[in-house]
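Side project, low priority. Logging it here so it doesn't get lost.
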Amino acid sequence: MFRIIAFLISFFALATSLNAQALRDIVTLKNGSKIKGRVVSENNASSLKIVTTDGSELVYSIEEVLRIEKYIDPDIAVETIDSSYSSIGVTFGTPTGLNVNSSHWFGRVGLHISGMSYRAKISGTELGINYKLSDNSFRSHSVGLNYSSLLSVNAKWTGFGIHYQYIYKAFVVKPGIQFGSGTFTSPQIILELGYINRLFVF
């Protein structure tokens, strides 16, 4: 049941891209023209000013305006280094091969947990604390400390380590190194590749 729920959550995260991006305005005029940009001032009794995507400032009589709508501009990166948000996704690699990955950022500091359990064959968990080096709606750089445990029919491992995480448009790569004890020699090179999607930003 856990695996079914985890995969449903992961599929939903993959299918719904809610990464923080820039909201902009579309001003539709009564003559059919559409202007994309950002409304910087509005006087319902007289006029409206909009800064277009190329930086020009345009002023229209309010009688010329049919409607104003919001849209997401995917070409504008929004700084989120001090923002708090949650994320969820699927990664391949440490600790169990295929992992459900969940995290929450409290500004520049974040906590994460990843892992999976396949009945009695293999079970693994990774816990970590991370620190953002840079972060916007396109890409993120962070470093962190982690603890992981693995228990399977043929192997076991418990270790502590450090890692670097790079995310570009939700695609993640996270290399690192762990020191521990178990079936494998210490230290161990660790690596995760996958997809991690932001759920909301505040």
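Brief comment: The chain is about 5% helix and 65% strand.
Revisit when time allows.
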